[in-house]
């Protein structure tokens, strides 16, 4: 079955497109909101948020809080109901195609062709971003090696474990060296070893200048990994700051999980 993300990246401009110069805030969100068709209320209430260039920003919240909805709007996979945002100074309405080249998206669901090999999948995704020839080949082989998958480059994705698919999903999103990387639960369902490799690689990308916005339910991971976090609940941001500041501000909290529970409560968030 064709991935829903393929249509989006098919219309990408060439990697040589010129972008706006750097801004102190890589992402500026202004009253951005989403109400799904036929839904009773808003999944994301009008919210403002700024994310600095070079940040590792964690968007944390219980099930159904609005994390995927917000990240999908920012990565142009979902049309906002109202409000606006800029990435690297580019407004999403006027610069849709440039923005697609500027960002990488690691969706929660695997956006891979199961009947193709890892190498074939990555060739396809790389070519969608305008990469080709030896340059594309070398990038693919380098990344496959860094993420520990050289032995499986020519194995079909259908035979991959969850952790291996997550690593290929990540490579597919960064071959074109995006300035901003959106990751929706990049370590969900993977073993500790794969998680370790993924997080190490994300740290390296960030050290080389990629701004990262990621969602996760792993609060320990977020506490270690993020320079800033925002906790979102029922479509609204309930607190934001560095993990250290949030822990210090909230009385009786020792870690980010305590802060999370203090702000979102202990009630279950089951929904269907
Ligand atoms: N296509 C849709 N149509 C209607 N409502 C939707 C749709 N997608 C999500 N929602 C609703 O929007 C709200 C926010 O969902 P979203 O998936 O953004 O939450 P989330 O924080 O990512 O949750 P999770 O941690 O479970 O992935 C939920 O109430 C969800 O049921």
Automatic annotation (TrEMBL):
Protein name according to UniProt: ABC-2 type transport system ATP-binding protein
Gene Ontology molecular-function annotations: ATP binding; ATP hydrolysis activity
SUPFAM superfamilies: P-loop containing nucleoside triphosphate hydrolases
Pfam families in the cross-refs: ABC_tran
Cited SMART domains: AAA
Residue ranges constituting the ABC transporter domain according to the UniProt record: 27-259
Keywords for the protein's UniProt record, in alphabetical order: ATP-binding, Nucleotide-binding
